[in-house]
C-alpha cells in the first residue's frame, strides 16, 4: 500500500553531483533516475528505464541537460522527449516519463503521482545542511522492512528506553517510556509534544538536572522533523507544561529524517542530526552525537528487521495486543490508510 500523490525524499542534495553520473533509485516500486544539468546544476528526474530495451538510464550519461542511454545511445531531453537515436535521421516521437523534482532543505523531493497534481506547498519545512547557525550531519541507510514498521517506530518513542538504552536514552538524559506525549492530528501530519521533567543533562555524568522539551511532527508520507531543547529545572512547571516560548534553552537539538519506501519489503531512511548551543565544545560534540545516532539507528534496524521476519511468518488474522503507546502508530496508519483510500477513489472516478 503506497500513497502516490505526495513528495518522497529521493536522497540528499549532495547525492547527485553536477557534472557527475545520474543516480538511480527505486521509490514505491518505481525506478527513478535523477541527474543535474551540466551548466546550472538544475535537477531532473525521469523513469529509470530506457524505452528501447529497458536498460537503466541511470547507467547512462548526462549531456548538457539531457541524458543518454549508454546501451545503444538513445538520448532524451528534460521534457522526456527522445532527441536522438544513432543511425536515425530524425528522432522518433516517443517520450520517457518525467517526474516533478524539487530541491529543498538539502533533500531531493520527487512527486511520484500524477504530475499535474504536484503541489510544492505539501513539502514540509526541514532544517537543511547548509545553515551555519544550525549545523547538521547527515547519513542514509536501508532497511529490509516495510515502511510502516518504521513509521510505527518513529510514532512511538517509548522504545528508546529499551532499544537504545546505551545510546539515545543516555544521550538524551530522559526516560522516554515514563512520559506520555501529547498527540494531536493535523491534516497530513501528527504532532508529538512532551516535557521530561527533572531529566539528566545529556551525557548523564554531571548529576545536573534539566527540563527537556521535545516536539516533533511526523508528516505524510514519512517525514520526521524534531526539535528538542534543555532548560533549567522548573521551566516545564513555569510554562504550565505547555510549549516553552521566548525562553533561551541551554542546548537545542534538531533532527530531520525521511522514510522512503523502496518497495513493500525494503525502505530507505535519510537522517540528519544537529546540536546547537553557544559553546564551541558543542560544535565539536556534533560528530560524537552523529556516532550515537548512527549506532541507534542500527539498533532500530536490527529490531525492526527481526520484527518484519516474524510478521512475514504470522497470519494477519493473529491479533496484536494494543498498548496505550500504540496511539501514535495507530493514528499514523489510519491517516495513511485514509489518504490512500481517497487517492484510489479519486483515481477510479477519473478525478
Ligand atoms: S536500451 Fe537504451 S538505447 Fe537500447
Ligand atoms: Fe529508535
Protein described:
The chain contains 6 helices and 17 strands. The strands form 4 sheets. A 7-stranded antiparallel β-sheet has the order 11-17-16-15-14-13-12, with helices on one face. With 351 residues, it is an alpha+beta fold. It is 22% helix and 32% strand. The radius of gyration is 22 Å and the shape is globular. Bound molecules: FE2/S2 (inorganic) cluster and fe (ii) ion.
What spatial order of strands do you see in the largest sheet?
A: 11-17-16-15-14-13-12
Coarse morphology: globular
The CATH class of the largest domain, by name, is: Alpha Beta
Strand proportion, as a percent range, falls in 25-35%
> Uncertain regions: pLDDT < 50 for 5+ in a row?
none
Task: Give a quick set of tags describing it.
binds FE2/S2 (inorganic) cluster; Rieske Iron-sulfur Protein; seven-stranded antiparallel sheet; Naphthalene 1,2-dioxygenase Alpha Subunit, Chain A, domain 1; alpha+beta; four-stranded antiparallel sheet; binds fe (ii) ion
Helix and strand arrangement:
Elements: E1 7-12, E2 23-27, E3 30-36, E4 43-47, E5 61-63, E6 66-68, E7 75-76, E8 82-84, E9 101-104, E10 107-111, E11 136-143, H1 147-154, H2 160-163, H3 168-172, E12 182-185, E13 189-200, E14 209-219, E15 223-232, H4 235-238, E16 251-263, E17 266-276, H5 280-312, H6 327-348
Helix pairs in contact: 1-6
Amino acid at each position: 500500500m503506497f500513497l502516490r500523490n505526495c513528495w518522497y525524499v529521493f536522497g540528499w542534495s549532495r547525492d547527485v553531483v553536477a557534472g557527475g553520473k545520474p543516480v538511480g533509485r527505486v521509490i514505491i516500486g518505481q525506478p527513478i533516475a535523477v541527474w543535474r544539468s551540466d551548466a546550472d546544476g538544475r535537477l531532473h528526474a525521469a523513469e529509470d528505464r530506457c524505452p528501447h530495451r529497458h536498460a537503466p538510464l541511470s547507467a547512462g550519461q548526462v549531456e548538457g541537460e539531457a541524458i543518454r542511454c549508454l546501451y545503444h545511445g538513445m538520448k532524451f531531453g528534460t521534457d522526456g522527449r527522445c532527441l536522438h537515436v544513432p543511425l536515425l535521421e530524425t528522432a522518433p516521437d516517443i517520450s520517457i516519463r518525467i517526474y516533478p523534482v524539487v530541491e529543498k532543505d538539502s533533500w531531493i523531493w520527487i512527486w511520484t503521482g500524477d504530475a499535474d497534481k504536484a503541489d510544492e506547498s505539501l513539502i514540509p519545512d526541514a532544517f537543511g545542511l547548509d545553515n551555519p547557525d544550525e549545523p547538521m550531519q547527515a547519513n542514509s541507510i536501508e532497511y529490509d522492512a516495510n515502511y510502516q514498521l518504521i513509521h510505527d517506530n518513529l510514532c512511538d518513542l517509548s522504545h528508546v528506553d529499551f532499544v537504545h538504552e546505551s545510546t539515545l536514552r543516555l544521550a538524551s538524559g530522559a526516560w522516554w517510556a515514563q512520559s506520555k506525549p501529547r498527540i494531536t492530528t493535523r491534516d497530513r501530519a501528527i504532532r508529538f509534544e512532551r516535557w521530561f521533567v527533572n531529566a539528566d543533562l545529556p551525557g548523564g555524568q554531571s548529576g545536573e538536572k534539566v527540563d527537556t522539551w521535545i516536539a516533533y511532527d511526523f508528516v505524510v508520507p514519512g517525514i520526521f522533523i524534531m526539535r528538542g531543547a534543555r532548560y533549567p529545572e522548573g521551566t516545564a512547571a513555569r510554562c504550565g507544561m505547555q510549549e516553552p516560548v521566548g525562553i533561551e534553552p541551554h542546548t537545542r537539538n534538531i533532527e530531520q529524517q525521511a522514510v522512503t519506501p523502496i518497495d513493500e519489503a525494503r525502505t530507505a531512511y535519510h537522517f540528519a542530526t544537529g546540536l546547537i548551543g553557544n559553546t564551541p565544545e558543542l560544535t565539536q560534540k556534533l560528530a560524537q552525537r552523529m556516532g550515537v545516532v548512527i549506532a541507534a539507528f542500527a539498533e532500530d534496524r536490527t529490531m525492526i528487521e527481526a520484527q518484519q521476519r516474524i510478521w512475514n511468518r504470522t497470519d494477519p488474522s493473529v491479533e496484536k495486543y494494543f498498548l496505550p503507546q500504540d496511539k501514535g502508530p495507530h493514528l499514523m496508519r489510519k491517516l495513511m490508510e485514509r489518504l490512500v483510500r481517497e487517492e484510489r477513489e479519486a483515481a477510479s472516478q477519473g478525478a
